[in-house]
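Thread: magnesium ion complex, take 2
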Amino acid sequence: MPDPIKPVIVGSAASARPGAPAGERPDADLLEGLNRPQLEAVTYRGPALLIVAGAGSGKTRVLTHRIASLLRTREAYPSQILAITFTNKAAGEMRERVQHLIGDSAQGMWISTFHSACVRILRREAQQFGFTKSFTIYDSGDSRALLKRLVKEHEADAFGLTPAGVQSRISKLKNELADADSYARQANMSDPAERVFVEIFGAYQSALQRANAFDFDDLIAQTVYLFRAFPHVADVYRKRFRHILVDEYQDTNHAQYALIHELTRPVQGSGGDSFSSGGMMIFEPETTPEVEGASLTVVGDSDQSIYAFRGADIRNITEFERDYPGAKVVLLEQNYRSTQTILSAANAVIANNFDRKDKKLWTDVGAGEAIVGFTGYSQHDEAQFVADEIEALHRASVPYSQMAVFYRTNSQSRALEEIFIRAAIPYKIMGGTKFYDRAEIKDALAYVVAVANPADELAVRRILNRPRRGIGDVTETSIARFAAERGITFRDALGHAPELGVGPKIQAAIAQLDAVLTEATEIMLPSSGEIAPPSSVTEGLSLLLNKSGYMDALRMSRDPQDEARLENLDELIAVTREFARNNPEGTILDFLTEVALVADADDLDDASGTVSLMTMHTAKGLEYDAVFVTGVEEDLIPHRISANEPGGPQEERRLFYVALTRARKRLHLSLAMTRAQFGEVSAAMPSRFLQEIPHDLIDWRQSPGDVNSRGGMQSRALNARRPGGGSGGSGKRYGDDLVPLPRREKSGDIAKFANRIPAKVRDNGDLQLAPGDRIRHDDFGEGRVDAVTGEGAKRVAHVRFDSAGAKKLLIKIAPIVKL
Ligand SMILES: Nc1ncnc2c1ncn2[C@@H]1O[C@H](COP(=O)(O)OP(=O)(O)OP(=O)(O)O)[C@@H](O)[C@H]1O
Ligand SMILES: [Mg+2]
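Output below.
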């Protein structure tokens, strides 16, 4: 540890008098403009501080100012600070803000995500427990590939186990700090499916260890394991980090909670008397620890807990006071982000969650603009509305970078993108098919990993036949067998091409791959022991891609997509150059670490002048002048899958709350009457959450009520088929295939419409119909069922109406009764 450890007297009253005349303090300028509870939170000194507060109340800002204050008053060295944020992007912002507040003396702080902090610890300590510091980080695609093989080898599909299912169970268990053995002890091992699962879990873990690799969940869980198994290692970090601060604490899972707990333990003196008494060893712990536990500050909002599906546990926040007795609790209630209108809407929605402490956010910003509501005929129509509004706002001088569009699922972005491209609106998708998820990028990185960590068999296998070298499954198996017989790695086996018992052409191909990898290794990890300069990553990567024939294969291809792939690889090479610039002492491992930890929200670039499109999950912690929340429909938000899970709808409501509270000045809520997904068009219903917003806060530009008052859904739907053929409106409608919709409120009265959104959406799911049955439809009158097709929610009745002719109706939602 390069930095000296400065003992900090925890709990000292030094400079801790909130409300003291600001002029007395060296950090006075940092306290200006804070409200009273914020000031209290920034200046409190003690072992544990919990700041609970609603969205936009300055939690993140308080953390930043608290760090700056600790540094400015010289209560802490930068190296004694560990701040945990939710994304790398948030970490970067926090670092910048601290630097802005106090200048360059912020160097040496650890401001990072849980995952990055653990990688840094593991890189230093992995050799303590059978890994090397060049370990690979498996992302979820890598884990899935490994599990696919194991599920096949164990013939586990016979027990209904799928790679995805096993993966998510293992992930949950690791988040609970369970391993294969501990799980086996409490599992029902008389159940053969459980036995196979436990076997696969064990085999998966051994494979990771053999490959010198950690999966994402391991990064945390194994660090906790490390600290518990090797207290002297943990003590190094306990002594170092005197101030630990965690943002978005409501979304920590058990493993993360345990990590923090380990880090904040006091360091016991090496003494402590043990003596023998009556044949029993008695251990007498020291009464006073050598070093007090670090001071811990956590901030969070239980109303914004949206990661239960990843094991986040709201109890971590609600039970903080129990776990850290004597903890100071500060509540913030003033919101500085949004207008009163936006806040009132958000407050009203979240009030419907029954298991929460009521807290009311207020602002003195004033009411601001009404929320704008819009109902499109289809998702294209909805997207057109969003695009029109964005253009209007842009003309009114709102920069594109201050606008964001949210949706619940990634697939919803396509319709928006199509219209944005046509309207020439610059936009950027956050998450989705990420750059680093693209096959060519993963191939290129697998080459680098094969050099950096040759024990990583998965990486070597991945590049074996990319580009095509005629190496098939049979050869791959021969290599694996040869490696096993000789007790060498798969990578090393490539150096024995002539002994593998394969044909001369394949021998040559293997030898060539071996030569390329060896040459790149000399550049990136020189055997001379010399430290390779960061530019060696660029050099090595170019060599790998060129000499392996990978680039050539793409250049020769006639597939137009391959051109895009080449561009992506060029971009990756540009990334390595940037890395070299930013990290003068960076190594190939630092590069791979950085790449492996890039999270969804991390490509955000506020300055770039583009509208940001992202899922509601990605939006956490961010803020924009104008926000569009799209697809506010049942089955999307709340999402269909969560509807039947315990606590599901409540978590979805929190997610919706997060989305609403991102908006500073303008909030738009939109939905569509029909939505095409996976090639099928189905009718959509307004989300129940819409009804929870007081009606007078929403200004409906177009509601389903308007739609009907202008001649009914059917005729509008027909008009909407032709772009530009809509009656009235903007004249830019992109209707797609519409199905008959249930009748809604005939009047255009918005409030009335809102009142009529059924609390529980109409659901004829149980209505059994058979050919020959007579039914009555609210609009079409009586008719006879000719046939019923489809299944479940997609069941369609083919009905011949007495006067309205033949129609196809979606049974689940059509306003029909059986006669
Ligand atoms: N005392 C203050 N004076 C002026 N602006 C403030 C003050 N406190 C917070 N803000 C501003 O209010 C906005 C919201 O603050 P911040 O992002 O810290 O809130 P938060 O509680 O972390 O929100 P979230 O729950 O969404 O993460 C920011 O733009 C911040 O700069
Ligand atoms: Mg925040």
